[in-house]
Amino acid sequence: MSTIVTGVIARTKGAEVEQTEIVIPDPGPNDVIVNIQSCGVCHTDLAYRDGDISDEFPFLLGHEAAGLVETIGEDVTHVEVGDFVILNWRAVCGECRACRKGEPKYCFDTHNASKKMTLTDGTELTPALGLGAFAEKSLVHEGQCTKVDPAEDPAAAGLLGCGIMAGLGAAVNTAEISRGESVAVFGLGGVGIAAVAGAKLAGASTIIAVDIDPRKLELAREFGATHTIDSSQLAGQGEDSEVVAKVREITGGFGTDVSIDAVGIMPTWQQAFYSRDHAGRMVMVGVPNLTSKIEIPAIDFYGRGGSLRPAWYGDCLPERDFPTYVDLHMQGRFPLDKFVSERIGLDEVEQGFATMKAGEVLRSVVMF
After folding, report:
1. CA-to-CA distance for 352 and 264, rounded, in angstroms?
2. Residues contacting residue 99 through CB under 8 Å, at least 6 positions apart
3. Domains in the chain, start-ordered, CATH in brackets?
4. 142, 31 in Cβ contact below 8 A?
5. For the whole model, what pTM was predicted?
């Protein structure tokens, strides 16, 4: 029997979000209904609202979520009723060519719920990143649920579901930062700050944080940055950028072992590219818009060596990484709780978008 709950949708492109009634159908054989306890306000949800990801409106927003498994389908074996879980949007299939090659983080056939959640008039909703968690309950595939320690704060745990894992994983998994290495992170939103924290966790000795906002630079120091660069008044582009010059100055004239672009716009991409030492590694975790193009001289790409890698979801494996970082937080070894800037109600999501765009928070978290 279907259930009616309250959720937040984006009905049309660019319009303010709406709080309305959502119909949750009975789970299919491998589906799960999760009673949502928390859901972070992520920039990706804003991108859905503004039509920057697809035009499959209306969207049921929200995806950085944690909660309790309430109902399971008849064939579910991965979780049980009552489990405390973090939702993930890349439930790997285990059977596609990427999974068979031992690279499940690149799975081409990730799982989603077998049924659609709808409005009360029957209109099908497109769940953000296959989850749709700005709702009291959500229907997901069992593989989208990762069981973690139930003693964890849901507000903190849920943030591993997207942005924090993206930045943390970009540093630890994609860049494979080693002890004693130098790192520069460009852009200090939630993802960038998580990359700073990940670099510290991995043992980097020099961590340079770059942003135009002095408040974010100070915050980066709290999460482990050893140096900060205020780029708001620095001129130049590409290799001639004053930002690049400052990074090289800090690193003895060489550049960093690792650079991470956590913004996804071409000025920061170029700063990250040219701030590397020769044979240094660059990671792009900031998501570019649909019209951005990478433009650098081919000889610069060829001549500097090293590696350039995108980070999808921080190259994470939820079943491996989510429980690990929850445990590290509870041991006092990773500051997951510090990413929770404020706790808000479901009726404050639109306000949360405004606060996020103003750069006033790392994460606003909706609590249920």
Report:
1. 22
2. 92, 93, 107
3. 3-161+335-367 (3.90.180.10), 167-312 (3.40.50.720)
4. yes
5. 0.95
Q: How far apart are CA 109 and CA 197, in angstroms?
A: 31
For residue 223, the 8-state DSSP code is T
Angstrom distance (rounded) from CA 236 to CA 45: 33
- What is the rounded CA–CA span in Å between residue 64 and residue 162? 6
Backbone angles phi, psi at 259, to 5 degrees: -130, 145
99 within 8 A of 30, measured Cβ to Cβ? no
Task: Give the pLDDT confidence score for residue 275 in this predicted structure.
Answer: 98
- What is the Cα–Cα distance from 33 to 169, expressed in whole angstroms? 28
How many Cα neighbours within 13 Å face the side chain of 89?
A: 24
Other Cβ atoms less than 10 A from the Cβ of 103: the count is 13
Mean pLDDT across the chain, nearest whole number? Answer: 96
Rg (CA), the chain: 20
